[in-house]
Amino acid sequence: MDFLLPMLVDGLAASALIFFIAVGLTLVFSVLRVLNVAHGSFYAVGAYVAVTIGGVVMSAGAPQWLSFPILFLSAALTAALLGPVIERTFIRFTYGKPEAVQILVTFALFLIFEDLQKLVFGVQAYYQDAAVNVLGISDIGGIIYLNYQLLLIALAAAVVVALRVMLHHTRLGKMIVAVVADPEVSATLGIDTRRVYMAAFTIGVFLAALGGALASPNSGVAPGLGAEAIVLGFAVAAIGGLGQIEGAALAAVIVGIARVLAIYYVPQLEPVAPYLVMLAVLLVRPYGLFGAATQRKI
Amino acid sequence: MKAIVAALSLAMTAAPMLAPAALAQDKPEQLGMGIFTFASGPAAAYGMPGRNAAELMIEQINADGGIGGVPVAPTYVDEAQGGEGVVSEFRRLAGDGSTDIMVAALSSGNCMALAPIADQLEMPMVTWNCDTHQLFLNAEHPYVFRPNSSTVPEFVAYAAYAAQKAPDATRIAIINPDYAFGHDAAAIFTAAMKAFNPNAEVVVELFPKLGTQSFNTEISRIAAARPDIIFSNMWGGDLESFARQASARGLFRSSQVILALGESILQRVELPEGVIVGVLGDSFWNAPDAKQEALDFAAAYNEKFGDYPVFPGMKMANTILVVKTAYEAAMEANGGTWPTKDEVLAALDGITAETLTGTVTVREDHDGIVDQIVGMTTGGTGTPELAEMVRYPGAAITPPVGADPIEWVSTLTPEFAAELPAPGSLN
What we know:
The complex is a heterodimer of chains A (298) and B (427).
Chain A: H1 4-32, H2 39-59, H3 67-89, H4 99-121, H5 130-135, E1 137-140, E2 143-146, H6 147-169, H7 171-181, H8 183-188, H9 193-219, H10 225-240, H11 245-265, H12 273-284
Antiparallel strand pairs in A: 1-2
Helix pairs in contact in A: 1-6, 1-9, 1-10, 1-11, 2-3, 2-4, 2-9, 2-10, 3-9, 6-7, 7-9, 10-11, 10-12
Chain B: H1 2-26, E1 31-37, H2 44-63, E2 72-78, H3 83-95, E3 101-103, H4 108-121, E4 125-126, E5 144-145, H5 151-165, E6 171-175, H6 180-196, E7 201-206, H7 216-224, E8 229-232, H8 236-248, H9 251-254, E9 256-259, E10 276-278, H10 292-305, H11 311-333, H12 341-348, E11 352-354, E12 359-362, E13 368-369, E14 372-377, E15 386-392, H13 394-397, H14 405-410, H15 414-419
Parallel strand pairs in B: 1-2, 1-3, 3-4, 4-5, 6-7, 6-8, 8-9, 9-10
Antiparallel strand pairs in B: 10-14, 11-12, 12-13, 14-15
């Protein structure tokens, strides 16, 4: 128990990044009912855009605090450019189609994005750590942490609250909830489901890109980032229950803590820790922690 | 009779003109060289400097008239296609008659896969990286030569340096990549540290998977263990990420950090002063005893590719120079005619060659004896520089032929480390 405090801080910091990956994935699934394998690509693109814009702005001599708004701006830019276009040109054709078709289409998108990233950025890693440097460090329990890591925990909690407020207290959110409940009835009530789908998908892209952008100051960005993100994202979304935002948050914390426990006590198990947790949860609750059994029509 | 005299006269007149033509027919139009390295994927961070250095070195050799008057024609094979593809390419190049010698490979796994194929196809193969000490451990490879060092002398050198610089350090943390290179290095470094300091203990040992982006939890775990020494043989993007994150979180201030492959990121990451780094051999072009050829090569590399060659590049350049030396030695031995394959093999067996950064000797087991350069960072980026440098003699820290490497390491003593050249002796 000597490591209790550092494990808690490490666990929450790891959970924050995992949450950003999973929450957009689960939101898109809850509204569009699409398993989006390309979600990891948006995470990677967000990171590349943030590092690129941040690099240009910082090398122009801009003040370091500007690196923070750049992270959010990069995510917004990625979402605005990619969200509506990808939804209209690829994703909408998969609505109501079997999961195999959705996975094939989004996996193709993922592969295209992977190659595009290599074409544009090459294979080397990129770093833009101004946001980390400007915040400094803190000593917690004798171990030095980046204040940026602590900020990410607060940001992840803020996103949970913001999403809840948005879904239950805004017009767009209420429309999304209505469409999730019943798209056909929503349409008959005058809700433009097409726009709701596009908006929900774009928010999902924004959350993925924000996760990548926020991870980049500390971790950098390199080829393979998207693949790692999507595998972990699916595991967390499955543990929480696909389509459950609070479930994704809790699952992220469980997976984050599991990984940290593994690194501290059984390092050999670290790579499989998220999947052992997933296995254990799904054996007991096949629809995830917050998921509910659904009727399947034949 | 007149006709005979005329014919003889014609023959005698034409002989001087025909002789070079006859000799030229003996020489091939080109020397086909298969060069295996990573040109894509994460390992390209090491593979591309190797490829670039090969390109430049071959360009320079050909500009000087080639090897024995024969231009070198390289064929590059991307190791990122995986073991099966690499073996298949090796077989194709060996079989189609286009290639006379292979310079392979970066990945130890690919080397282990290719070595028996080289023997089977009777194709000379000169390794340019292939660090694993297992290459010649339980097998003889008559067609395979390693004019480079292996993991044993490479990581014994770091343990010796640590023992000399921090003799009271006992608590060791290790964070290496999760594959054979990382696990072998951990075993060798641990055995050597315990041999040099019987009180040494490993307080934490982590093997994050290749391609890990965030090492924050690992850094916390290491910091919590309060180690005196942190050893890592991570490389490429993993090393860069770890170094940046560990530096930001003060790990380099609280412990003596050893980054075995740290020279490769000196131009990209601002490592603090006093980190122990090396080049897995002697392939550091900017050492105080650097030859003018090394400085010229680095300058040409910088002009062509925009940065200075990191050690994988220098290792590749040195290996091609060994091949050149072997061909020239074989030609000298046979009176100047183009050597047969057997003559090249004979020349490589036991060869001692001058490289850009030192001297290499290939022993009777075809393993190389190469010095080990280790030093400390000076802070800052730009032109790679090291302080407190030492050049450990390769012969002193390489296990004898036939010895079990790990057993040999455990026979070393604190006196052995103390008798080696001292850090700073090269500056």
